[in-house]
Amino acid sequence: MRLAAFLSLAAAVVAVNACVSNDDPFEQWHGPKAGDVRGPCPFLNTFANHGFLPRSGKYITHKDLADGLLNAVNFDANISAFLFDFAVSTNPEPNSTWFSLDHLSRHNVLEHDASLSRVDAFHGHADIFNQEAFDETRSHWGDIVDVQSGVSAIVARMKTCKSTNPQYSISQLGEAFILGETAAFISILGDFQTITVDKRRVEYLFQNERLPTTLGWKRPETQFTTDILIGNLQTVAVEYRKRLNSTVLGKRGEGYAERLMHGRARVL
Ligand code: HEM
C-alpha cells in the first residue's frame, strides 16, 4: 500500500516537472515548419522559434509583439509600440493591424543593405542567414563585442557591400536601424550599462536563431526602456561618426536618433 502511494506520488512529481519544463518557452525551441515564415531579424525569428511570438511568424498583432518582447527580453511597452509601428508599415496591405516576419524583408522599407548576416537584396533574400556575410562580421569582433568592434563590423560590411553591389544604397532610416540593431543586440544579450557582450552568445543566437540560455544568458532583470535604447544608440552613433565622418547621419548631428524615436517613423 505504502509502495503504491509512493509510486503514485513519484509519478505525480515527474508529471509536474514535465509540465513545468514543457511550459517554459525558454526551453521550448522548434525551428519553423512547412508553411511558417521567418524574416531578416534574427531576434524576432528567435522569439517565434521559442513561441514568444506566433510560431507561424504570421499575423503578429501589437499585443503579440508587446507580450512577446516583454516575456522574452523584458522590453517595456513604449519600445514595443514604437517597433510595432515600424513593423506594421512593412505589411503591403494598407491600414493593417498585424505583420508577418517575411514582410520585414521588403527592401528599403526597413530592410537595408549591409546587413551583418544577410546578403544585400541585389544578391539574394534577406530572410535567409548567410554564413559568409556573418563570418566577415564576426571577424571584426573580439571575444567581447563592444561599441568599437560592433561599429568596425558595421563599417566593414558597408565597404564590402558597396564594392560588390552596383545598386548599393542606405537610407537615413536604414542607417539608424543599422546602429540601433547593434546597440540592441549588445544590450539585450550582454550588459546594457557597459555595452559589452560575450561574442559566443551573439554567434549562437544569429547562427541558431535560439536564445543562448545554454551559454548562461538569462532574460534581463532590468526592463529595457526607450531611454536605454536611445542612450546606447547614441553611443554607437558617436563611434560610427568618428569612423565615417561624412555620412548623412553624421551631418544630422547628435539628436538624430532621439528625433527618430520621438517622431516615430517620420524621419526628417
Ligand atoms: C529584442 C529586440 C530586437 C533586437 C535585439 C533586434 C536586433 C536585430 C539585429 C541585430 C538585426 C541585424 C541583422 C543583420 O544585420 O544581419 C536586425 C534586423 C532587423 N530587425 Fe530586429 N531586432 C529586434 C526586434 C525587432 C523588431 C521588433 C522589429 C520590427 C520592426 C525588427 C526589425 C528588423 C528588421 C526589418 C531587420 C532587417 C534589417 C536588415 O538587416 O536589413 N527587429 N534586428
TrEMBL record:
What are the residue boundaries of the Heme haloperoxidase family profile domain, all occurrences included?
A: 25-231
What are the record keywords, sorted? Heme, Iron, Metal-binding, Oxidoreductase, Peroxidase, Signal
Leader peptide range in chain numbering = 1-18
Q: Which Gene3D superfamilies match?
A: Chloroperoxidase-like
Identify the cofactor(s): heme b
Recorded hits in InterPro entries, A to Z, give:
Chloroperoxidase, Chloroperoxidase-like_sf
PROSITE patterns assigned to the protein according to its UniProt record, in alphabetical order: HEME_HALOPEROXIDASE
Pfam families the record matches: Peroxidase_2 (PF01328)
Q: Which GO terms describe its molecular function?
A: metal ion binding; peroxidase activity
**Protein family membership:** Belongs to the chloroperoxidase family.
Q: What is this protein called?
A: Chloroperoxidase
> What's the source species for this entry?
Cercophora samala
